[in-house]
Amino acid sequence: MKKNFFLFLSSLLLLASLLTEKTKAQTIELLGGNLLNGTVTGSFLGAATMGLRNSSDFDPLRIGLGAGIIGGAGIAIYDVATLPKGQQFFISGTFNDGNNTSIILLLDTFYGAAGGAAIGTAVILLSGDAFSDGIRIGSGVGAWTGFAFGIADAFFLSERNRDLTSSKILNRNSVFSAKNKKTEFELLKPQLISTPELTNQGDLTSKISPALSILSFQLNF
């Protein structure tokens, strides 16, 4: 008996250790990914600012690099704090999906810069001004526009684990269900029950009452 108990206890400790390691790995992955993406985004915006100023002063790039690292660390903390336990982080933005929030910011900034450069180039070609000015101004304005949209996209427009989980729960008929072609098992399923009643005038009516099915099992032939 004692041997079985110690074996069971050891199995629980091993499982807890594996879950803890998984949680640590998830935290490190979110921290590293957000720091890297934040650094690239900040550097990109710094370079865009240099382009808009048409200056070789590297102060905007330096400031963007530092701000990107700090911003990436802050977003990593936010991702870890809002991640439901036991789940792999996932975010679905307007144009992109990713494993951390900062990737939405980075890609939206990049798309904004690319789109701005294309529009700026088209305007310059029509106006006959210097070609390089179109790319420089267009990509700079586009990068900041994309970054602004990325903030709204990442924190307000996107769907995260908790949103997807809530959606699945709200669309369920029961708290837990498991089914295949022949069997269906449901736990804690809300129902409406219709009960026939005979009135004092002799009329037959039905009364509908809410109920909760604790456990249900269905077998199909």
How many angstroms separate the termini? 43 Å
Largest sheet properties = 3 strands, antiparallel
Sheet/helix structural class: alpha+beta
Uncertain runs are 5-9, 11-22, 165-171
Helix-strand string: HHEEHHEHEEE
Can you put this structure into words, describing what you see?
- This protein is an alpha+beta fold.
- The chain folds into 2 domains: 13-169, no CATH class; 172-219, no CATH class.
- The chain has 5 helices and 6 strands.
- The strands form 2 sheets. Strands 2-1-3 form a 3-stranded antiparallel β-sheet. It has a 3-stranded antiparallel β-sheet with strand order 4-5-6, with no helix packed on it.
- A hairpin with a 4-residue loop joins strand 1 (91-92) and strand 2 (97-98).
- Helix 1 packs antiparallel against helix 2 (59-82), helix 1 (2-53) packs parallel to helix 3 and helix 3 packs antiparallel against helix 4 (131-157).
- The radius of gyration is 28 Å and the shape is elongated.
Main traits of this protein?
single chain; 221 residues; alpha+beta; 2 domains; 5 helices; 6 strands; 19% strand
Q: What's this, in brief?
A:
With 221 residues, this protein is an alpha+beta fold. It has helices spanning 2-53, 59-82, 102-127, 131-157, 161-170, and strands at residues 91-92, 97-98, 159-160, 176-179, 183-198, 204-219. The relative contact order is 0.09.
SSE order and pairing:
Blueprint: H1 2-53, H2 59-82, E1 91-92, E2 97-98, H3 102-127, H4 131-157, E3 159-160, H5 161-170, E4 176-179, E5 183-198, E6 204-219
Antiparallel strand pairs: 1-2, 1-3, 4-5, 5-6
Helix pairs in contact: 1-2, 1-3, 1-4, 3-4
